[in-house]
Amino acid sequence: MSLTTQLETMLAMAGMGSWIGIALDTYNRFLQRSKRARLIVFLHDLLFWLLQALLIFYVLLLTNEGELRVYIFLALLCGYAAYQSLFRRAYLKLLEAIIRCCIALYRFFIRTCYYVIVQPIRLLLHLFILAMLFIWKIIIFLLKALYRCIVFLLMPIRALGKWLWFMIPLTWRQLVEKFLHVLAGFIQKGKNMIIRWGSKWRK
Prior knowledge:
The chain is an all-alpha fold and 203 residues long. The chain has helices spanning 3-31, 38-64, 70-167, 170-202. Helix 1 (3-31) packs parallel to helix 3 (70-167).
């Protein structure tokens, strides 16, 4: 392995050490260990460190074809220590600022969608319901008015019918009433037969 390759490997591993510090702080910030079950924390930690190991091996594979040396671990520790002492506070402040900015953008997006999409749809739906209720009231009013007009127009015919009915001799009226009574009985019997046939057919 040439000296240039060794230097590139050390710089890359120092950078990966700093990256591990950044990733660990970011991971702990979002994980919130105190609010998670131990099994969930264990699984997340296992996946996190497996991912970091794969990333380190991938970078090592790109720099020196995956050869392990003692100075690689020293470079990782130096990069991690440099991050902890020099950049950790600044990164944590930057991370919190980014999180606040993302939350503000998310809330702005939700409010914009609410006032641009949800509120107009609710307003249109409310107006549609009001219009349908208004049309329904108009229809009911017109039907009531039509019914009253028909009743009013039929009043003379009804009075004439009553007068003609009482002008018919009593014996004829009795015959007509008997006929209507018998006819009503036939109609009721036919209705009962239809109901019975319908019940049998359903069974």
